[in-house]
Amino acid sequence: MLSEFPIVRTKIIIPRRRSEIITRPRLLSILDNVIDLKLLILAAPAGYGKTSLMIDFANHTQLPVCWFSLDTLDVDAQRFIAHFIASISSRYSDFGAASMAALQNINQDKLDLDAVINAIINDCYENITENFVFVLDDYHLVRDSKPIEMFINRISQEMPENFHLIIASR
Fold first, then answer.
1. Which residues does residue 137 pair with via DSSP β-bridges, in sequence order?
2. What pTM was estimated for this model as a whole?
């Protein structure tokens, strides 16, 4: 997918599962049992293994997993949304053209996100039929951005039932 927004590919791939990660079967079982929920929030202090658990879960689950590792630059709503779209389209090639076109039409000064959010929701509904998980890792780095908060609120409420969002944050 061509985009005027540069996508950092390493941010939207599941990190490699390192051999020193200890599998936590009880936590994996809990995630398996609640993954049908639309939104899961995994919150713990730094160093408690949130990312490691999500990597282990991604390698454990039978569901497709889309991944987005956040950093402080992602407080820019257009950058955030471009990576969000790219993460899903890297797993589902039919997804993304309409979403990215809507994103490219957003006026940065006005930042009315309704059109792009609607496009993402419709794009997902029309092009993805199977259940899948979307992991947002390190959400605490962007949680103070009002446009991103609005985006996540709408996405978590209005995406089709096959979309399951896990937010890992401090």
1. 69, 168
2. 0.93
On average, the pLDDT of the chain sits at 94
- CB-CB contact of 68 with 84 (8 Å): yes
Summarised one tens digit per residue, pLDDT across range 146-160 is: 999 999 999 999 999
Token output for 72: 């402080």
Please name the amino acid found at residue 2. L
Q: Is 135 helix (H, G, I), strand (E, B) or coil?
A: strand
Q: Is the dihedral of CA 139, 91, 2, 16 positive or negative?
A: positive
- CA nearest to 99, candidates 117, 120, 124: 120
Cα 74 from chain centroid (whole Å): 12
Residue 134: closest CA among 75, 89, 93, 96: 89
112-125 b/e (C-beta count within 10 Å ≥ 16 → b): ebeebbebbbebbe
Q: What is the mean pLDDT of residues 34-45?
A: 96
Six token digits for residue 46: 């730094």
Residues present in the chain in total: 170
pLDDT over 90 for what percent of the chain?
Answer: 87
